[in-house]
Amino acid sequence: MVLKYIMDVLDRIEFGQPLEQALSMLNKGFSSTTGANPRSYVAHAVDSYLTATADRSLMLLERRWLATQHKSDIVRELCSWGRCYQSTDGSHRELRLLRLGHADKTRRTHGEVAVAAVVTAFGHPASNPERWSNAFERSEGQLPERVTVLEIGLLDGSRNILFDGTPDQAQDKYTTDGRDAVTALLNGSGIRPGRDCLKCQIKVACPAVPRAANLLGIQTPPRAPMRKVSISDLRYYERCPARYRLQAMLLPRLNEYDRYARLGKAVHKVLEQQHATAAEPCSLADMPTDDGWAAGLDLDEADVHAGLAMLANHPMVCPLHVGVAPMRIEPNYVFYDTSAQAMIIAKPDLVYQDAGAWVWREIKTSQRVADTRPVLEVYPQLALATTVLAAGLLGGDTHNARIELEVLRPDRSDLVQIDPHEPENLAQAREVLRKFAQPWRDDTVFQARSGKSCRTCPVRRWCPSAADPE
Ligand code: SF4
Ligand SMILES: [Zn+2]
User: Is the per-residue pLDDT at 204 higher than 80?
Assistant: First the structure.
């Protein structure tokens, strides 16, 4: 969403409006007092873009270029999405792709670059159709002699040239890297549920998105707009609704992980690699024995040692003790909660089968004194796992499905098991989730709750309500 605002503001600026006037378009959709206003980031991004491209003397052309292929009565359209420019004599075209954070060419596939290059070389100017299902409205235009595809990072004005060559070279690149990628896309049959499901037209009928009522323990009117949410989103919302909203707009996050979170991620990574290839339960011999395990990671010495000790305590509670069974590491799940009108996104640390029943395991690292609150309250992911398994949404032997919490500490490991069919557990899980989810579901304003949490908020740089550091 925020990328669209940036594009619109840039359009206005390139057609002569002053920055402040161009930014005023954001006043319509956002109140300046709620705190969930992306204006500060949009202004920053526009400035980064203009600085990064100041040395490129090209004229704005159209929002899109479009290349079409007609095969019997099927029309296939390849179109660009980025900022499209050409030189005044039409001999040079440039497509500028935008990233909200840093430019990073390793995150673009060869196929993407090939398609971008060929559309820039052979596409015609086109405007959006009235209905998305209609063909684009295409106009004729002069084709260029030189083509450039650039990537701009809007956080820091970083810039990469992804392609620079003649139309013939763009065509060669498409033949080598692009055609197969497009064919795979057209013939694609895989289903990969995730954060994009909300935008999908067939989400409510998709076999990869199981549905059930009451997963979040809340009710909403059936006509309420559908939303997507994860347990992490609800935690962010609890700390500050504006933070949740700004993060949901995908504004760049700065200093997101504290030292405890960085250590937890590093320990997870080691276990993930170990389990990906393991044929038997982890043993002490499989665990790292010196500080080299954390080479290149942003961990201090004490945390490197704590991580070593935590890993040494994993073999006692390794899930593979039940035998080598079907196992999925950090799988992406999406569930449709019909009473909350919400697509729930979940990524357990691990799920595996024990005698045909799915086990949902979360792995936590801790150096603190054990929390005395009920585990479903301390770790709401477990509450969601409880309602999901109680509804039988992972399949298998649903009656014996269970949840496990593995807590790794420097001096010991604990394994807690939870039966999702135990009525007390299920009621507690729904209550925990309801407390989290109902305020989020009812909210349409996302008012900032500035205070102590601003100090560690990863979007505070963009937040108009951020509390001053003490
Ligand atoms: S800086 Fe503070 S008020 Fe702003 S989003 Fe973050 S936590 Fe909320
Ligand atoms: Zn293991």
Answer: yes
- For 48-77, b/e burial (b = at least 16 CB within 10 A) is bbeebbeeeebeebbbbbbbbeeeeeeeeb
What residues pair up with 71 in beta bridges, in sequence order? 74
The residue among 102, 20, 94, 19 whose CA lies nearest residue 53 is: 94
What is the pLDDT, as a whole number, of residue 443?
A: 93
SS3 content of the chain, % helix, strand, coil (to 5): 40, 20, 40
Give the ligand whose atoms come closest to the C-alpha of residue 350. 2
243 close to ligand 1 (CB < 6 Angstrom):
yes
Rg, the chain, Cα only: 25
Residue pointed to by tokens 């005698």? 355
Contacts 24+ apart (CB under 8 A), 9-16: 9/42, 9/46, 10/46, 10/49, 10/83, 11/60, 13/46, 13/50, 14/60, 15/60
Between the alpha carbon of residue 401 and those of residues 94, 395, 419, the distances in Å are 55, 9, 7
pLDDT at 72: 62
Q: Which two tokens stand for residue 363?
A: 């792995």
Q: Is 300 helix (H, G, I), strand (E, B) or coil?
A: coil
Mean pLDDT of the chain: 91
pLDDT tens-digit series, residues 305-320: 999 999 999 999 999 8
C-beta of residue 89 within 8 angstroms of C-beta of residue 117: no
CA distance linking residue 119 with residue 374, whole number of Å: 57
CB 237 within 8 A of CB 231: no
Residue 48's SS3 state is helix
Residue nearest to atom 7 of ligand 1 (CA): 454
Atom of ligand 1 nearest to the CA of 459: 6
What's the pTM?
Answer: 0.90
Ligand 1 site, residue 266, Cβ cutoff 6 A: no
Distance 273 CA to ligand 2 centre (A): 10
Mean pLDDT of 330-347: 96
CB 254 within 8 A of CB 461: yes
Q: Are 143 and 199 in contact (CB under 8 A)?
A: no
Element (H, E) at 362: strand 357-365
**In order of start, what are the domains of the chain with their CATH numbers?**
53-187 (no CATH), 194-470 (3.90.320.10)
Q: Which two tokens stand for residue 469?
A: 């550091």
